[in-house]
Amino acid sequence: MYGRAVRAVRAATALAAAVALTATSTAPPAPPGAPDLSGVRGVRAAEWSPDRPQEAYDANRGAAARASQAAERAGGTDRAEALGALAAPGRDLLEFDPHGQGRAVEVVGDLEEADRVVVLVPGADTTLDTFDGHGAKPYMRVGDAARELRARMAEVDPGARTAVVAWMGYPAPATVSPAVATTGRADTGARALDAFVPRLLRAAPGARLTLVCHSYGTVVCGRAHVASSRAADAVLVGSPGAGVAGAADIGARRVWAGRGGSDWIAGVPHGALHLPGTTVGFGPDPVGRGFGAEVFDAGPGGHSDYFAPGSRSLSAIARIALGRAEAGGGNAA
User: Fold this and answer.
1) Claim: this prediction has a pTM higher than 0.85
2) Residue 333 needs a FRET pair 20 to 30 A away by CA distance; which of 50, 153, 216, 320 works?
C-alpha cells in the first residue's frame, strides 16, 4: 500500500512538472488592465430559456459589445478585440459573463433545427482572451474549433442538420499552475456541464449528442455524469487521463479516444493519488488497451492540431459525431 502511494505521488509530481515544462512557452499573457464592468451583465448559466435561445443571443451580443468598450477604455486592446469579436453579428452566445476569467458558450449552427449536436469542452488556458484563435494556429481555440468541426461535418454529410457548441462554461486552469494537475477545476466543470446539457437538449429535442473533449477538458467530461449519460458518443483527444478508471465509468454509449503522433501529452505519466477534497493525476491513459475506449487514428499532429482544417483527426471526429464511424480501433477516419 505504501509503495503504491509513493509511486502515485511520484507520477502526479511528474505529471505536473511535465505539463508545466512543456507548456511554459504557450501560456497566454495576463490582460494589461482590468476594465470597469459595473453594469455590464450577460446571460449567465441557468438564465437562458431553452424555448427562446434567440433572446440570449441578442442580449449577449450587446453585453459583449459593452464589455469590449470597457476594455478599450482601460487600455486592454487585446481583450477589447477578443470581446468585440464575440459581439459581431452572427455570433450566437447562449451564455456570457465578462467578469474575471469569464465564461462564454457559443452555438455554431441552428440549435433548434439540429438533429446532431456536438458540445466541445476545452482544456487549460481557455479564457475570453483565448476563446477565438490568434496567430499561427487559430483552430486550437474552442470558438474556431467549433466552426472548423461544423464545416467538416457539412463536407462529410451536406444534408445533416448540425450545431456545434463551444462550451467555455467552467474556470479552466492555467497550464502552468498547480490546479492543472488536480481534478478540482474539472469537478467544478463537470457539475456545470451536467447542469447545461439537459437544458441544451430541451432547445434541440430529439438531437443526438456528442461530447468532444480536449486535453484537461477530457477530465471534465470523464467526471461529468448527467452530461455523459445523455451522450451517444464521448470523444477524448489529447487526454492526460479522464479522471476515471476506464471507459465504462463514462456514461456515453460509445467512448472514443485519439492522440496525435506528435502530441507531447504522450509523455505525461499516468496515475492518480486521492487526497482529501481532490485527486492529483488523472488515472490511466485513454488510448491504452486497458482503458476500454475505441481508439481512432488521429493522424500525425500535435496537441493543438486536432481541429486543424484537412486533418485526419478533424475528419475522424466529424464522422463520429455524424454516426458514421465504424466500430473498432483506428476506423473512425
Assistant:
1) yes
2) 216
